[in-house]
Structure formats: C-alpha cells, structure tokens
Amino acid sequence: MAEAARRRRRSLMEMLWEYAEEVERAAEEFFESLLAPGRPSWDVRNRCLEPLTHISVAPDEVVITMDLPFVKPETIRVRPVEEGIIEVVAEMKKALRPRDLGVVHVEGELREMRCRTRLPVPVEMKAMRFVFRKGILEVRLPRKRQARA
Amino acid sequence: MQVSVVEKEAVPEEPIVVVGLPDVGLVGVIATHYLIQKLGLREVAYVRSDLLPPIAVLHGGLPHSPVRVFGDKGLVVILSETAVPADAVAPLSRAIVDWCRAKRAKLIISLSGIPVPNRQDIDHPGVFGAASLPETLEFLKQHDVKVLESGIMVGPYALILRYCAEQGLPALVLSAQCFFAYPDPEAAAAVLSVLAGFLGLELDVEELIQKGEEIRLRARDIMRRTQRELARMRKTQEYDIPLYV
Description:
heterodimer, A: 149 residues, Immunoglobulin-like, 2 domains, 4-stranded antiparallel beta sheet, 1 helix, 38% strand, B: 245 residues, alpha/beta, two-stranded antiparallel sheet, 8 helices, 11 strands
C-alpha cells in the first residue's frame, strides 16, 4: 500500500515537473516571439537598414548605443518622435543594393540607417545629447526625477 | 549522439585546431572566417546535429551545414555561420572536444572576445588568455599574452576549455577586448595577430580593419541572433566581480 502511495506521489510530482517545464518552454517561446518579430533588418520599401541597438538604464540616465557602420557622420539625426520614442536616421556613404549584402533575390536600394527606439523609463527629452565615435552612436538622456529608482 | 563531426575527407591526426563560434563581438567568427579566406582552407568536415537550427547555408547555390570544419597542412578551423542555440552549446562543445581528442589535436585554440564597457575608448584591443593545463598556460606566458587570472567565462569557449581540462587536452582561449553587442573586426584582428605569432603565420590583418565597416554591416543579423542566445546563457556574468582572487 505504502509503495503504491509513494509511486502515485512520485507520478504526481513528475506530472507537475513536466507541467512546469512546459510552462517555461511556452514562456520562452513567447518572449522569443517578442524579441524576434520576424521582420528583416533591411527594408527596400523605405530604403533603410535597421542598426543594432543596445539600451542601458542607469539610476540617473538612459544610455542608448547604436552600431552605425558605413554612414556619413554629418548626416546623423536623433530626434524624439513621440512620447518615449526617439528616431535615429543616418545616410549611408553610398546606396547599397541588397545584393551587396548577400541578399540576391531582392532588388532595390538601401540609402539610410534608420530606427525608432522606445525608451524604457521616462526621460528629459530636451536634455538629450549624443556623440558618434568609432562608428557607434551614443545617446544619453537624463531620467525624469520622479521616475528614478 | 546529439552532435557529430562528419568528415568529408580524412582529416590527418595531430592538427592544431582553431575554433570560431558566435559570441560577444563575433570575434571568433570574424577572425576564423578571415583566416579561412586568407589561407585558402577547404571544407574537410561539418557538424551534424538536430540541436542546431533547421537551416542550410547556401554557398554557390549548394547547401552546407552552418557549422563547418576547414583545414589544410595540419591546421583545422571550426566556424559557425549561425548563432548556436543556448541548449546546443554543451553538446556542441562536447562533440568538438571529443573529435579533437580522437584526432589527437596538438593544441585547441578558441578565438573569442571579452566585453568591456568602455570599448570605444580603446584604440588597440588587448588580448587575454586562459588555458586548460599548466603547460599551456606557460605557453601563453612565453608569448607575452596576459592571463585572465580570475573571473567567469560563459559560453562554448568556457565549456571547451573545461572539457579539455577534464580530459587533459592542451587548449587555449584567446579573448580580445570587444563590444558586447556589436561585431568587432578590430578585436578579431587583435586575436588573429596573437594567433599568427603562435603559429608562425605571416598574416596581414590590415585588410580586416579596412573592411571593418562592411563586415559590421553584414554581421548585424548573426549578431542580433547571437545576442539573444547570449542572454539565455546569462553571458553578462562575465562582467561579474569574482568572489575570490
């Protein structure tokens, strides 16, 4: 009897364990779908490439960096487009074809690096400053006082 | 076997093996790709595994495994053209080490990056090393490579080094200071310069630096996917301050 009860308990634990694993897998897939919305990093309709971006939130400021290879530094524009979103646009040194990047099945031209980035916390947009060094754009935005941790 | 190395032609024993897998800054991938091109190495084997993404990499219209082995004249280079899923890192690392042991590899050298937050302030990335055995550590010191005395390594290189240590195989990791989230051809050039010194190769890395922007453009997508896998591996632990020194 005790052996049977122990087996039932074990089987229940195994079921719970499998269920937990399944939930974990589903959560991972969900976050994966958020991270990878399934669109390419280039867009021939808007003639642009999307740069790699990294955001870090410090106690006093938000720092956004972007890798902007092959752009004309003097053409870089950084501006707020709506509440909590900034847009970065920079012209390429020369127009590229998708073929130049190994995408041989699409015709068109890519003339800009462009992206919109949502800021994770409220910031003082008017105090935004940016610098471009070694092909990396660094945008610094002070956090709004009441939003700081 | 979850992962196996399939030889297309017999790979001679006792090779020196260089490994370039996607990691921070894509240092190993950029460096090994350049090495393969410059030395004109041919594909001699590939990795077969259901744990890798279901993709074929097309070259000249023909399908290839995303993880391939190139070689010639006693040098073997392993290169992955896709981000290695976090779940596949351990089996892949194990398979690479097992294959190296079967081939009685003389030395296994992983090319990698070590992320530094102030990378933009560094003109010439420094190269640091770690080794699987005291003798290989001594080899690093003889070549004036600064040793990563303490800290945490995360990812395939960490496992390759550990598995090699367990099996008594001579292995090194060469890590150049690099960007965490962006492809870093300068860091790749830095590790290649040290590697060239080890192997007695005449390798001009200037072209790699000159083509840096083009490489960064092309490498954006593999970097993006690699970032996702690095997050799953908790790669940021490499920034952690070690408990004991």
